[in-house]
Design goal:
One of its GO terms (molecular function) is platelet activating factor receptor activity. Belongs to the G-protein coupled receptor 1 family. With 289 residues, the chain is mostly helical. Helix content is 77%, strand content 3%. A two-stranded antiparallel sheet has the order 1-2.
Length: 289
Amino acid sequence: MVNLTVADLLFLVTLPLWVIYYYNRGDWLLPKFLCNLAGCFFFINTYCSVAFLGVITFNRFQAVTRPIKTAQATTRKRGIYLSLVIWVAIVAAASYFLVLDSTNTVRGRPGPGNVTRCFEHYEQGSMPVLIIHIFIVLSFFVVFLVILLCNLVIIRTLLAQPVQQPRNAAVRRRALWMVCAVLAVFVICFVPHHLVQLPWTLAELGYRSGRFHQAINDAHQVTLCLLSANCVLDPVIYCFLTKKFRRHLTERLYSMRSGRKCSRATTDTSPGTEVVVPLHPVLCGSLKN
């Protein structure tokens, strides 16, 4: 879960850059290296999220189908090694974006001036670019297929198990919600983009043109927004996956609510009048200390 959080934070760091870019109607007015950095972090966020959600799903699949063996084999050190391998592989692949010619100038619409695009164009007929995108898209759908099959087996196994205690029913319900949350993130955020990515790449490389190019470009922009939404939906997975996160969130909400009650209580006193206002037992205990 820490790895997913770090991946989301990398995208959030560059979010102001994308806001400025689209606020200026797709005109990159910032230094060129910031476009490279934003593209690099976007790639890291996307595929680290895919990889770690895949690892989480496969770990849950093993825990449901082979609980004893999984409990014996799962260690903290093994998880750290696997996380390092994923980070090194994806960061190494994303480093290409730091040296890539990331911007291009096109005629503005409307008006005679030119605008600078950020990662919205490729060199015409570039075969290496096409091969890279084919590899990325195929790799994603292999991971998605594994996640889909694992989650279907998890759902079938959980529904087939008899529930004898209310506590077990709550655990099963939470596990089913977690499975649905992971699938929702993939179906809503990642799948539409990767369905459009290859046709868009072919259009940008000049293999398709005309109305198709404009239509696929518009669809590509929409799927990029959906892809960015995974940072919003990932906290839903945190909520279903970890008791510590839910407990921390509950404590923070309770603390905020108690703080507002205390603030209202202090404003009820008026000059020259002594008013006794009852405080919450937790606050009374902290005041005594």
